[in-house]
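Figure 6 in text form: structure in, sequence out.
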């Protein structure tokens, strides 16, 4: 593996700093003086139409960003990732989520193992199982077909499946429903099982490591619920609880021996590999709930979308390589324009969980302060990703994006064809909706000047309050429709954007040591919470005070 480059020591970084200092940002003027600007900065990646022209971007900036990528060896690292080198060095692992979506006939040997064949062997098992649930061949302990699939998982074992399920609901088979339990707050499992019929419910325990406290706790709570509810309904009828668990619980994990210890039949477990990071795993067996709900054919399409974007990232020239350009733009915003956060604003209600999904993908990947050789970093990494679907966000936080003092680059996402083509009288509701998608980036970029505000007859005292400064950057992403394929493309786009940023910053985007300390402390603190005074006395004063408050008020 090549050593990381300190990006601040590159010539391109120095030039970008200079360019930023000299730049007179003027999106109105830039568009007026260059009628080719929109076309020049609009690109295609698979089915995605990506307009970067409303960004704080000039040809000079772009050229130097591409030089920065070259000086920091981004494309070399990309190739190392696709070829299965152990670029996740702190865990000594390959990073091969891209192998999860390679066609069957591809070959890729990693650490002496043909991984593409392994992937397709598991996929076939997942598809076979999904078909049996969908056609009613797989039944619960009392012979009834499955109506509800409950995925129990957290982080990467939850966020991807729930996000895609919500996004692709129009593709879900009638009579099937998925629910997702993640939080160790018992409210989650209690509420999600409250109205369920145990005889028609299938639980999927999804955990890469099969050690995650939340998931194992919830899986045990669900198992207790299942057995008690079956018993209460007289459905067990002398049958062994083991048999009920075998019919109503399956698992997805890289740790199949732990699955067996939990009491789930290994025949009903689907594996994946340590070279799939949790937040990069929705296209592995972690997506089993999706394969059931959407069907194997749609899941194949979903994988095809990922692969199409992978191919674009691998083969498009740097100047037209959308994930490369978007990743570099994000570096520009974080390190030169000094943006601390990035909004993702889907104009598609179906994508309402997409920002939450991206939070783990981007922030667990690039929230790092040492480079992959352990050397410390003295420049910003990992901006905060956040967002909500439009138009809801417009009535909540857009005020700050339009007129606040912080600069927040935003990605707007929309689809030409609606999932539900409804009309309001003679107007298409989708077109009213899309008009907002087109209006917001325009307002952000071009604003409204004092003269324009005055010309509307505004009282002088409130003119400045009604001015929009403009020059607020955004990217607009469109696709024909939110299909399984396009969903895969969108996820892969953001995976690779995240990769590019991490590669420029020299960080290992594939480990997550920062989540460990809190987990350890929770286990240490639990006895104090439960009533152990000695454990309470061992806490710092603030934590002890809070636990005491809890114990007095429980
Ligand atoms: O705590 C963070 C994390 O390790 C994530 O990276 C991961 O997606 C999540 O926990 C769940 O892990 P697992 O799939 O092993 O249960």
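Output sequence:
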């Amino acid at each position: 593996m090549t050593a990381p480059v300190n990006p601040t020591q590159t010539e391109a970084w120095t030039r970008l700093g200079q360019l930023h200092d000299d730049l007179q940002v003027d999106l109105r003027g830039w568009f007026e003086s260059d009628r080719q600007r929109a076309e020049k900065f609009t690109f295609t990646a698979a089915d995605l139409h990506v307009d970067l022209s409303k960004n704080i971007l000039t040809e000079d900036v772009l050229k130097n960003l591409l030089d920065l990528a070259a000086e920091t060896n981004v494309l070399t690292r990309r190739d190392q990732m696709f070829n299965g080198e152990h670029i996740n060095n702190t865990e000594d692992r390959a990073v091969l989520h891209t192998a999860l979506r390679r066609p069957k006939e591809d070959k890729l040997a990693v650490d002496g193992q043909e991984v593409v064949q392994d992937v397709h062997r598991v996929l076939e098992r997942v598809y076979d199982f999904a078909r049996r649930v969908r056609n009613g061949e797989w039944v619960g302990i009392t012979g009834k077909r499955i109506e509800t699939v409950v995925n129990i998982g957290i982080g990467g074992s939850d966020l991807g499946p729930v996000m895609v399920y919500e996004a692709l609901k129009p593709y879900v088979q009638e009579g099937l429903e998925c629910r997702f339990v993640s939080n160790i707050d018992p409210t989650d499992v209690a509420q999600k099982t409250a109205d369920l019929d145990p005889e028609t419910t299938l639980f999927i325990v999804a955990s890469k490591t099969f050690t995650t406290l939340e998931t194992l706790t919830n899986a045990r709570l669900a198992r207790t619920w299942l057995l008690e509810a079956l018993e209460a309904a007289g459905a067990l009828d002398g049958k062994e609880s083991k048999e009920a668990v075998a019919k109503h619980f399956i698992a997805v994990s890289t740790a199949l021996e732990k699955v067996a210890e939990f009491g789930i039949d290994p025949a009903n477990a689907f594996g994946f590999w340590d070279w799939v990071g949790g937040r990069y795993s929705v296209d592995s067996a972690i997506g089993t709930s999706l394969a059931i709900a959407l069907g194997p054919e749609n899941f194949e399409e979903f994988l095809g979308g990922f692969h199409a974007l992978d191919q674009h990232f691998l083969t498009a020239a740097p100047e037209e390589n959308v994930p490369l350009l978007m990743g570099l733009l994000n570096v520009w915003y974080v390190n030169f324009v000094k943006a601390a956060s990035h909004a993702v604003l889907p104009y598609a209600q179906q994508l309402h969980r997409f920002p939450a999904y991206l939070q783990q993908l981007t922030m667990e990947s690039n929230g790092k302060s040492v480079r992959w050789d352990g050397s410390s970093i003295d420049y910003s990494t990992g901006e905060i990703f956040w967002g909500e679907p439009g138009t809801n966000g417009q009535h909540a936080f857009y005020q700050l994006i339009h007129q606040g003092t912080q600069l927040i680059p935003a990605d707007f996402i929309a689809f030409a064809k609606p999932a539900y083509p409804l009309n309001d009288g003679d107007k298409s509701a989708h077109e009213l909706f899309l008009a907002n998608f087109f209006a917001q980036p325009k307002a952000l970029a071009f604003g409204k000047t004092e003269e324009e505000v005055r010309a509307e007859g505004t009282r002088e005292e409130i003119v400045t309050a009604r001015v929009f400064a403009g020059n607020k950057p955004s990217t607009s992403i469109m696709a024909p429709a939110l299909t399984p394929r396009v969903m895969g493309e969108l996820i892969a786009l953001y995976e690779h954007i995240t990769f590019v940023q991490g590669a420029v910053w020299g960080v290992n985007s594939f480990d997550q040591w920062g989540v460990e300390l809190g987990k350890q402390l929770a286990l240490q603190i639990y006895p104090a919470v439960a009533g152990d005074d000695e454990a309470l006395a061992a806490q710092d004063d603030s934590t002890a005070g809070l636990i005491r408050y809890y114990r007095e008020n429980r």
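Caption detail: Residues 484-505 form the longest helix (22 residues).
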